Amino acid sequence: MATYLVGDIHGCDKALHALLAEADFSPARDTLYSVGDLVARGPDSLAVLRYFYQLGESAKLVLGNHDLHLLAVANGIKPVKAKDKTQPIFDAPDADRLLNWLAQQPLIRDVPAPDGGFLLTHAGISPQWDKSTAVACAREVEAILRSEDQVWLLESMYHDSPDQWDATLTGVARYRYIINSFTRMRFCSPDGRLDMQCKLPPDQALGSGLVPWFEVPNRQPLEQAVVFGHWAALNGTIQPKLYGLDTGCVWGGKLTLLRWEDKACFTVPAE
Asked: Which of 1, 10, 83, 143 would staple 42 via disulfide (CB 3.0–4.6 Å)?
């Protein structure tokens, strides 16, 4: 029984199955965790969605920004973009079932293990949050996504402000900060303010005054490791209690899988 964690798939179905075969993943025995962004830009997002849905309890995921955008498109809030290659999802006979299932997925997972386990999110955890705050904030947004207010939330999420956490935030401002932190965050200013514009590798952002969210001074301590994706320009990062698994498969890089128990990494090149 092994625990596998895969980076951003983005519809790269053939690469996903090649990677799982290389690691000898078995849904009858193992559990597969995804850092989110199952869909968009790759050749077969529908196949990836169906595969994770069909795995049932053998697959767990968190929502990424592209997954949330897919839900927004499904609700008529945004148009389908040709470059996203997601039209086959909406044309599929099982589209409603897949999209309803996707909307039930969380923004963070707390996964126990003998070594302390890990927190799984798409982009990371706001440097201004401790674990209990992060989990509580995620549950607020998840409850709305699963309610009749889903469309209202999806309509409201497309903005970069506010850029700093305040426990007194309410309504749209509060929920937007939570969504941006979990699904879009990369860089922050040293005081923890989110920067939504810079997507460079950290070594190319020197002199900008920005730092990766996980290097913010006085970042709130977390009891567990954090596993995340989203930031392809990092090309993966393995640090003590920090595992970045997005290695840019859909951009011509590779797809990465981590086996948690022994921290073995498996990769396959882009399709």
From this structure: 10
> Which amino acid, one-letter code, is at 185?
M
In the numeric block, the tokens 């955890």 are attached to: 125
- Cα 43 to Cα 23: distance, rounded to the nearest angstrom: 22
**61 φ, ψ (degrees, to nearest 5):** -150, 170
Q: Residues 126, 183: contact at Cβ < 8 Å?
A: no
State pTM to two decimals. 0.97
Ordered per-residue pLDDT tens for the chain, 271 residues: 999 999 999 999 999 999 999 999 999 999 999 999 999 999 999 999 999 999 999 999 999 999 999 999 999 999 999 999 999 999 999 999 999 999 999 999 999 999 999 999 999 999 999 999 999 999 999 999 999 999 999 999 999 999 999 999 999 999 999 999 999 999 999 999 999 999 999 999 988 899 999 999 999 999 899 999 999 999 999 998 999 999 999 999 999 999 999 999 999 999 8
DSSP 187-231: EE-TT--EE-S--S-GGGSTTTT-EEGGG-TTPPP-SSEEEE---
Q: Between 171-183 and 131-145, two packed helices, what is the crossing angle to 10 degrees?
A: 110
